[in-house]
Design brief:
about 200 residues; Rossmann fold; five-stranded parallel sheet; 10 helices; 5 strands; about 55% helix; binds adenosine-5'-diphosphate
């Protein structure tokens, strides 16, 4: 009997997690994306959104009754207590939903949960292993500025708010080097994918 294998994929902001996850999806992995779950748990009609309105007021909604993420982002960027309150509403719901989706994966699946804040939130023990998308901070900064149209100061502040590159490397079981061009990714993903398939077989 082959059992499903559940691993996590992490990396700093704009390191290339989504890019790498797409390549694993092409090879057959079940991808569970925390960013998507964080949106799902605050959709209109959810308990999550109701709690946010209780805490922050209806001013955080846009005209359609959906969460105005940019507006809320500004509030929490300027107020650490507000940020923690928001996390306490969203994170447990994301974790619960992720656990459900991992459990729902077919027996022969390799599920890969994208968890940007894996090191910061201490959830790594729940996974059979950790895949890290790694790159030098200077290159990460360039890609973040380009993708999010940020100044260097804004991008640096976002990077400084996260775990360090060394902290991530310390927990990684498999490292995908994304310092080069996207063309350098497929063969690395193939190597890790082969190892994940072996891991799955050897555990069952
Ligand atoms: P994350 O999901 O970790 O935030 P993304 O996969 O969105 O990161 O990648 C961040 C940005 O960098 C995106 O605009 C993406 O297209 C780009 N990118 C990813 N890998 C590379 C690469 N090897 N070279 C150049 N740009 C890249």
């Amino acid at each position: 009997m082959v059992a499903a294998l559940s691993v996590a994929l992490t990396g700093g902001i704009a390191s290339g997690k989504s890019t790498v996850a797409d390549l694993f999806a092409d090879r057959g992995a079940v991808i569970i994306d925390s960013d998507l779950l964080a949106r799902e748990v605050v959709e209109p009609g959810t308990e999550g959104l109701a709690e946010i309105i209780d805490r922050f007021g209806a001013g955080v909604l846009d005209g359609d009754g959906r969460l105005n993420r940019a507006g809320l982002g500004e509030i929490i960027f300027a107020d650490e207590t507000a940020r923690q309150d928001l996390n306490q509403i969203i994170h447990p719901r994301v974790r619960a939903r992720r656990t459900e989706l991992i459990a729902a994966a077919p027996d022969d699946a390799v599920s890969i949960s994208i968890i940007p804040l894996l090191v910061e939130t201490g959830v790594r023990d729940r996974f059979a292993g950790i895949i890290l998308v790694d790159l030098p901070v200077a290159e990460q900064l360039r890609r973040l500025m380009a993708r999010n149209h940020m100044t260097a100061d804004q991008a640096q502040a976002r990077i400084r708010g996260q775990a360090t590159r060394a902290e991530r490397l310390a927990v990684a079981d498999w490292v995908i080097d994304n310092s080069g061009t996207p063309g350098n990714l497929p063969h690395q993903v193939d190597r890790v994918w082969t190892q994940l398939l072996w891991e799955k077989v050897s555990r069952s």
